[in-house]
Each structure stands twice: as structure tokens, then as C-alpha cells.
Amino acid sequence: MKTLTALFTASIIAMTASLAHARDLGPDEALRLRDAGNIVSFEKLNAIALAKHPGAKVTETELEEEYGKYVYQVELRDPQGIEWDLELDAASGQVLKDHQDT
Fold first, then answer.
1. What are the pLDDT digits (tens) for 55-71?
2. For 99, left (φ over 0), alpha (ψ -120 to 50), or beta?
3. pLDDT of 15-70, one tens digit each?
4. Which fold has domain 23-100?
5. Residue 101 — pLDDT band, cuts 50, 70, 90?
6. In this structure, what is the dihedral angle of CA atoms 19, 20, 21, 22, given to the nearest 10 degrees?
7. Composition of the chain by helix, strand, coil, percent to 5
8. Any idea what DSSP says for residue 99?
9. How far from the centroid of its chain's Cα atoms is residue 66's Cα?
10. Radius of gyration of the chain (CA)
11. Coiled-coil intervals in this record (predicted)?
12. How far is it, in rounded angstroms, from Cα 65 to Cα 72?
């Protein structure tokens, strides 16, 4: 029982720590950052993500600030119905993560 309690407590602490360092940005703030040149246009970020999975469609996007950096998260569905999660550096367009959604 002590082990289960310790694991549960550790998972709650880990989730809380990760939430404290990520902040969702609303549409107005995202547009302001784009217009100021702090992040790449959403069209370009989507094009970069879609180039990784030709024929896929964007199903969801989100812009977050994580540890002082802007991260653009994109969910795609390819022609075979496989879902992909990508994270891009919103300032440069560099792909940070690209993995199949499980």
C-alpha cells in the first residue's frame, strides 16, 4: 500500500510540475506574437507538419509557451487513419517531436 501511495503521489507531483511550466496562448496573443515576428505564421507551421506526413489533414492545433519558448502542437490524421502528434518550435519551425498517437 505504501508503494502505491508513493507512486500516486509522485505522479501527481510530476503532472503538477509539467502544468506549471506550460501555458496555453489564446488566439489574440498568438496573432500578436505572429505580427511581431516572434513566431512563424500558422500557415507555414501547418505546412511544415503536413510535409512530414503527405496527404494528412490537420485535426487540431495549439500554441503554448513552455519554459519561455513557444511550441506549436499539431495533431494530424493521415490517409490510412493514423493519428500523429507533432511539436514545432513556433519561432523557427523546427520539428521537435513527431510521433504516432497511441
1. 999 999 999 999 999 99
2. beta
3. 444 445 789 989 999 999 999 999 999 999 999 999 999 999 999 999 999 999 99
4. Nuclear Transport Factor 2; Chain: A, (3.10.450)
5. confident
6. 50
7. 40, 35, 25
8. E
9. 10
10. 16
11. none
12. 9
Distance CA(1)–CA(7), nearest Å, equals 10
> What type of residue is 8?
F
Residue appearing with cell numbers 487513419: 81
Contacts by 76-82 with C-beta closer than 8 Å and gap 24+?
Answer: 76/49, 76/50, 78/53, 79/55
Cell, residue 51: 510535409
Identify any residues that bridge with 62 across adjacent strands, giving them in sequence order: 73
In whole angstroms, what is the distance from residue 90 CA to residue 12 CA? 29
- Write the DSSP assignment of 41-79 as a string of letters: -HHHHHHHHHHHSTT-EEEEEEEEEETTEEEEEEEEE-T
